[in-house]
Backbone:
């Protein structure tokens, strides 16, 4: 490791340690005065030093930036030290709402409820409180201009991903065979009904 | 089990569920306040917990069972309503709400994908849990807040527009005053304590409501006494000592 790289990694390490939020490359560059390519090699060195098997602190590439955080393997000690419990796990309904926002967002509360088939307002409210969803605009085409909801930086942090592009495409989540089977069952049930009985 | 000081037979019933742990009455309150999703609450498990806590020898067992059956039935109704598909009530939109089997299949396929996405999210969130960043938080940077002029305009329009006047057509003319009812109460108390039901026997709803307000007002001023043997029981007005 060269002296220049060591110095760059020190600077980046110091900036990341002082920030609770992920810091993107441009901000790191402007804070340290280093060119982006040098920051890239310094981050690679830091990633090795802060690999989970080497340290109680890990370097994360999350939410479009870099962040130093405690190693999850040490979380029990941190939680005991801070005298705080881990946030309550999200419910199945909450994950479904987040999935709607991730793959279809920004979208309105009504659109979420339509996808899920049940009213989701209470779940959305809880997710807004937890900072995993945010209102990012309004749908001017709909009556009353309802708020549009989308995932937040906290969502990416909690999911441990750099961006929404890290998730598999929606259409790849369910196999064509399974979808065809469902369609066939519904259509065959529909054919057995008279047109007046259509849902 | 005996009835506790609160007079609520279920006040000592606590539950241990995955989504909630604590007094049953608080669980009901959280559900009613939409703090907890009703369809996250396993009602069957809840009933099982109640049956485990039940003591048939308890002198208040019947009252306790009745209370639980009533609240559990309300939860079942609430849950079934929540899980029912959303129906548009607007008759003009009724045609649009008719779903063909093809559309239903399409919707179900979309939901299945979202549900699989939810499963992936659950795994990602679980794998990522336990990362704690430094506790040091930076002050917000001036000028980093993005303001959308259109949203500000919208907010201003909403703030400065005058809401429509609510209609009062359903309200009849007010034909009684608090003072009149105070006189009625004083007259009634001349002969000693009187029950509120007797006092309002010949009154309409408006007079009854004002009489109740007058009685509360007089009681607050110490000009009469109010007694009620049990919650929601008969109310008796007594002359001040």
Residues:
């Amino acid at each position: 490791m060269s002296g220049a790289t060591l110095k760059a990694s020190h600077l980046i390490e110091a900036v990341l340690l002082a920030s609770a939020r992920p810091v993107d490359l441009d901000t790191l560059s402007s804070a340290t005065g280093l060119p982006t390519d040098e920051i890239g090699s310094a981050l690679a060195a830091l990633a090795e030093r802060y690999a989970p098997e080497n340290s109680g602190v890990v370097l994360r590439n999350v939410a479009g930036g870099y962040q130093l955080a405690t190693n999850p393997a040490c979380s029990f000690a941190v939680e005991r030290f801070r005298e705080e419990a881990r946030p309550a796990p999200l419910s199945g309904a909450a994950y479904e709402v987040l999935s709607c926002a991730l793959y279809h967002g920004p979208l309105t509360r009504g659109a979420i409820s339509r996808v899920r088939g049940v009213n989701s307002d209470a779940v959305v409210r809880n997710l807004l409180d937890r900072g995993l969803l945010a209102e990012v605009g309004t749908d001017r085409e709909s009556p009353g201009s309802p708020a549009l909801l989308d995932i937040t930086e906290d969502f990416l942090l909690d999911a441990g991903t750099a961006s929404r592009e890290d998730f598999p495409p929606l259409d790849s989540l369910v196999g064509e065979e399974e979808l065809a089977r469902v369609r066939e069952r519904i259509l065959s049930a529909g054919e057995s009904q008279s047109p007046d009985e259509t849902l | 089990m005996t009835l506790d000081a609160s007079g609520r037979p279920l006040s000592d019933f606590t539950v241990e569920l995955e989504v909630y742990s604590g007094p049953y009455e608080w669980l009901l309150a959280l559900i009613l306040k939409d703090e907890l999703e009703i369809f996250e609450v396993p009602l069957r498990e809840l009933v099982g917990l109640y049956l485990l806590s039940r003591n048939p020898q308890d002198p208040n067992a019947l009252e306790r069972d009745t209370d639980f059956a009533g609240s559990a039935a309300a939860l079942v109704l609430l849950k079934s309503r929540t899980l029912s598909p959303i129906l548009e009530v607007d008759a003009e939109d009724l045609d649009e709400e008719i779903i063909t089997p093809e559309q239903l299949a399409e919707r179900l396929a979309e939901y299945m994908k979202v549900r699989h996405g939810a499963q992936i999210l659950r795994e990602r969130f679980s794998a990522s849990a336990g990362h704690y960043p430094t506790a040091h938080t930076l002050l917000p940077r001036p000028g980093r807040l993005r303001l959308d002029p259109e949203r500000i305009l919208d907010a201003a329009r909403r703030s400065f527009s005058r809401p429509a006047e609510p209609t009062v057509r359903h309200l009849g003319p007010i034909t009684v005053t608090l003072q009149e009812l105070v006189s009625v109460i004083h007259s009634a108390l001349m002969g000693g304590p009187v029950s509120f039901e007797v006092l309002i026997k010949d009154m309409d709803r408006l007079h009854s409501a004002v009489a109740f307000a007058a009685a509360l007002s007089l009681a607050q001023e110490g000009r009469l006494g109010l007694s009620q043997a049990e919650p929601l029981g008969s109310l008796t007005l007594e002359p001040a000592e």
